[in-house]
Amino acid sequence: MNKIEQIKHKIEKEGKELKQVPEWFFDKHLLGVEKFARKLLEQLPEANEEIVLLGVWLHDLQRIRGIEGDHAEIGAIEAEKVLKEYGYDATTIKSIKDMILTHQCNSDLMPKTIEGKILASADAMSHYINDFYINVALLGQQNTEEYKKWVLEKLDRDYNRKIHFDFAKEMIKEKHDAIEKFITID
Question: What are 54-85's pLDDT values in tens digits?
Fold first, then answer.
Protein backbone atom coordinates (compact mmCIF):
# COMPACT_ATOMS: atom_id res chain seq x y z
CA MET A 1 0.00 0.00 0.00
CA ASN A 2 1.48 3.37 -1.01
CA LYS A 3 1.65 6.40 1.30
CA ILE A 4 -1.48 8.04 -0.15
CA GLU A 5 -3.51 4.87 0.44
CA GLN A 6 -2.10 4.62 3.97
CA ILE A 7 -3.13 8.23 4.67
CA LYS A 8 -6.56 7.63 3.15
CA HIS A 9 -7.09 4.67 5.49
CA LYS A 10 -5.79 6.69 8.46
CA ILE A 11 -8.32 9.46 7.73
CA GLU A 12 -11.17 6.97 7.33
CA LYS A 13 -10.23 5.28 10.61
CA GLU A 14 -9.97 8.58 12.50
CA GLY A 15 -13.35 9.68 11.16
CA LYS A 16 -14.98 6.50 12.42
CA GLU A 17 -13.19 6.42 15.77
CA LEU A 18 -13.34 10.11 16.69
CA LYS A 19 -16.97 10.58 15.51
CA GLN A 20 -16.48 14.32 15.02
CA VAL A 21 -18.02 14.25 11.54
CA PRO A 22 -21.27 12.58 10.44
CA GLU A 23 -21.08 8.93 9.37
CA TRP A 24 -21.58 9.92 5.72
CA PHE A 25 -18.60 12.30 5.66
CA PHE A 26 -15.95 9.87 4.41
CA ASP A 27 -18.08 7.96 1.90
CA LYS A 28 -20.10 10.90 0.62
CA HIS A 29 -17.79 13.89 0.88
CA LEU A 30 -14.17 12.75 0.83
CA LEU A 31 -14.67 9.98 -1.72
CA GLY A 32 -16.62 12.53 -3.79
CA VAL A 33 -13.72 14.97 -3.64
CA GLU A 34 -11.37 12.18 -4.73
CA LYS A 35 -13.70 11.24 -7.61
CA PHE A 36 -13.76 14.79 -8.98
CA ALA A 37 -10.05 15.38 -8.34
CA ARG A 38 -9.28 12.33 -10.47
CA LYS A 39 -11.59 13.56 -13.25
CA LEU A 40 -9.91 16.97 -13.19
CA LEU A 41 -6.46 15.37 -13.20
CA GLU A 42 -7.40 13.53 -16.40
CA GLN A 43 -8.04 16.91 -18.05
CA LEU A 44 -5.05 18.62 -16.43
CA PRO A 45 -2.15 16.16 -16.78
CA GLU A 46 0.42 18.85 -15.94
CA ALA A 47 -0.77 18.80 -12.30
CA ASN A 48 1.06 16.77 -9.68
CA GLU A 49 -1.30 13.88 -8.87
CA GLU A 50 0.37 13.00 -5.57
CA ILE A 51 0.07 16.59 -4.28
CA VAL A 52 -3.60 16.77 -5.32
CA LEU A 53 -4.51 13.46 -3.69
CA LEU A 54 -2.70 14.32 -0.48
CA GLY A 55 -4.72 17.54 -0.41
CA VAL A 56 -7.92 15.57 -0.96
CA TRP A 57 -7.33 13.36 2.05
CA LEU A 58 -5.92 16.01 4.38
CA HIS A 59 -7.98 19.15 3.65
CA ASP A 60 -10.70 18.44 6.23
CA LEU A 61 -8.55 17.25 9.15
CA GLN A 62 -9.77 20.06 11.40
CA ARG A 63 -13.34 18.76 11.06
CA ILE A 64 -12.38 15.08 11.29
CA ARG A 65 -10.40 15.68 14.47
CA GLY A 66 -13.03 18.03 15.91
CA ILE A 67 -10.53 20.77 16.73
CA GLU A 68 -12.10 24.16 17.43
CA GLY A 69 -10.95 27.16 15.42
CA ASP A 70 -10.23 28.17 11.85
CA HIS A 71 -10.94 25.27 9.48
CA ALA A 72 -8.13 25.99 7.01
CA GLU A 73 -5.42 27.12 9.45
CA ILE A 74 -5.89 24.22 11.84
CA GLY A 75 -6.31 21.81 8.94
CA ALA A 76 -2.96 22.91 7.52
CA ILE A 77 -1.24 22.42 10.90
CA GLU A 78 -2.76 18.96 11.32
CA ALA A 79 -1.86 18.00 7.74
CA GLU A 80 1.75 18.95 8.40
CA LYS A 81 1.84 16.55 11.36
CA VAL A 82 0.54 13.69 9.21
CA LEU A 83 2.88 14.47 6.33
CA LYS A 84 5.89 14.53 8.66
CA GLU A 85 4.76 11.21 10.15
CA TYR A 86 4.87 9.73 6.64
CA GLY A 87 8.26 11.23 5.81
CA TYR A 88 7.29 13.92 3.31
CA ASP A 89 9.81 16.65 2.54
CA ALA A 90 9.44 20.34 3.39
CA THR A 91 8.53 21.34 -0.18
CA THR A 92 5.67 18.85 -0.37
CA ILE A 93 4.45 19.84 3.09
CA LYS A 94 4.44 23.52 2.11
CA SER A 95 2.49 22.75 -1.08
CA ILE A 96 -0.16 20.80 0.83
CA LYS A 97 -0.45 23.42 3.56
CA ASP A 98 -0.89 26.18 0.95
CA MET A 99 -3.61 24.15 -0.76
CA ILE A 100 -5.47 23.62 2.50
CA LEU A 101 -5.15 27.28 3.51
CA THR A 102 -6.75 28.38 0.23
CA HIS A 103 -9.22 25.57 -0.57
CA GLN A 104 -12.22 27.50 0.79
CA CYS A 105 -11.56 30.44 -1.56
CA ASN A 106 -12.52 32.96 1.11
CA SER A 107 -11.71 36.66 0.85
CA ASP A 108 -8.32 37.13 -0.75
CA LEU A 109 -7.14 33.57 -0.07
CA MET A 110 -7.36 31.96 -3.47
CA PRO A 111 -5.32 28.99 -4.70
CA LYS A 112 -2.35 29.97 -6.83
CA THR A 113 -1.24 26.56 -8.09
CA ILE A 114 -3.04 24.22 -10.45
CA GLU A 115 -3.06 21.61 -7.69
CA GLY A 116 -4.72 24.08 -5.31
CA LYS A 117 -7.30 24.98 -7.93
CA ILE A 118 -8.04 21.30 -8.50
CA LEU A 119 -8.56 20.69 -4.78
CA ALA A 120 -10.85 23.72 -4.37
CA SER A 121 -12.82 22.74 -7.47
CA ALA A 122 -13.15 19.06 -6.52
CA ASP A 123 -14.19 20.02 -2.98
CA ALA A 124 -16.94 22.28 -4.35
CA MET A 125 -18.01 19.75 -6.99
CA SER A 126 -18.43 17.05 -4.34
CA HIS A 127 -21.25 19.11 -2.82
CA TYR A 128 -23.36 18.44 -5.92
CA ILE A 129 -23.47 14.66 -5.53
CA ASN A 130 -24.32 12.09 -2.89
CA ASP A 131 -27.19 14.09 -1.38
CA PHE A 132 -24.75 16.50 0.29
CA TYR A 133 -27.36 19.21 0.86
CA ILE A 134 -29.94 16.71 2.14
CA ASN A 135 -27.39 15.23 4.54
CA VAL A 136 -26.55 18.70 5.86
CA ALA A 137 -30.27 19.49 6.23
CA LEU A 138 -30.74 16.32 8.27
CA LEU A 139 -28.21 17.58 10.80
CA GLY A 140 -31.00 19.97 11.82
CA GLN A 141 -28.78 22.80 12.95
CA GLN A 142 -30.76 25.50 11.10
CA ASN A 143 -34.39 26.38 10.56
CA THR A 144 -35.74 26.21 7.00
CA GLU A 145 -35.10 29.86 6.12
CA GLU A 146 -31.56 29.81 7.53
CA TYR A 147 -30.86 26.59 5.66
CA LYS A 148 -32.15 27.98 2.34
CA LYS A 149 -30.01 31.11 2.78
CA TRP A 150 -26.96 28.99 3.60
CA VAL A 151 -27.49 26.70 0.59
CA LEU A 152 -27.88 29.61 -1.85
CA GLU A 153 -24.74 31.31 -0.52
CA LYS A 154 -22.78 28.04 -0.64
CA LEU A 155 -24.00 27.23 -4.15
CA ASP A 156 -22.90 30.67 -5.34
CA ARG A 157 -19.49 30.46 -3.65
CA ASP A 158 -18.89 26.88 -4.77
CA TYR A 159 -19.84 27.49 -8.39
CA ASN A 160 -18.49 31.01 -8.90
CA ARG A 161 -15.43 31.17 -6.62
CA LYS A 162 -14.25 27.62 -5.93
CA ILE A 163 -14.61 25.91 -9.29
CA HIS A 164 -11.68 27.29 -11.28
CA PHE A 165 -12.17 25.56 -14.63
CA ASP A 166 -14.97 26.17 -17.13
CA PHE A 167 -15.03 22.49 -18.15
CA ALA A 168 -15.52 21.57 -14.47
CA LYS A 169 -18.43 24.00 -14.14
CA GLU A 170 -20.01 22.35 -17.16
CA MET A 171 -19.69 18.96 -15.47
CA ILE A 172 -21.98 20.02 -12.61
CA LYS A 173 -24.02 22.87 -14.13
CA GLU A 174 -27.19 20.81 -14.48
CA LYS A 175 -27.02 19.70 -10.84
CA HIS A 176 -26.19 23.25 -9.71
CA ASP A 177 -29.20 24.67 -11.52
CA ALA A 178 -31.52 21.92 -10.22
CA ILE A 179 -30.50 22.43 -6.58
CA GLU A 180 -30.78 26.20 -6.90
CA LYS A 181 -34.24 25.88 -8.48
CA PHE A 182 -35.40 23.45 -5.77
CA ILE A 183 -34.18 25.67 -2.92
CA THR A 184 -35.87 28.77 -4.33
CA ILE A 185 -39.32 27.16 -4.85
CA ASP A 186 -41.87 28.89 -2.65
Answer: 999 999 999 999 999 999 999 999 999 999 99
- The residue range of the domain holding 165 is 3-183
* CATH number where 33 lies: 1.10.3210.50
The number of distinct structural domains making up the chain is: 1
**pLDDT tens digits, residue range 30-58?**
999 999 999 999 999 999 999 999 999 99
Q: Flag whether pLDDT at 108 surpasses 90.
A: no
Contacts of 158 (CB under 8 A, 6+ apart): 124, 125, 127, 128
SS (H, E, C) the chain: CCHHHHHHHHHHHHHHHHCCCCCHHHHHHHHHHHHHHHHHHHHCCCCCHHHHHHHHHHCCHHHHHCCCCCHHHHHHHHHHHHHHHCCCCHHHHHHHHHHHHHCCCCCCCCCCCHHHHHHHHHHHHHCCCCCHHHHHHHCCCCCHHHHHHHHHHHHHHHHHHHCCCHHHHHHHHHHHHHHHHHHCCC
Confidence of residue 138 (pLDDT cuts 50, 70, 90): confident
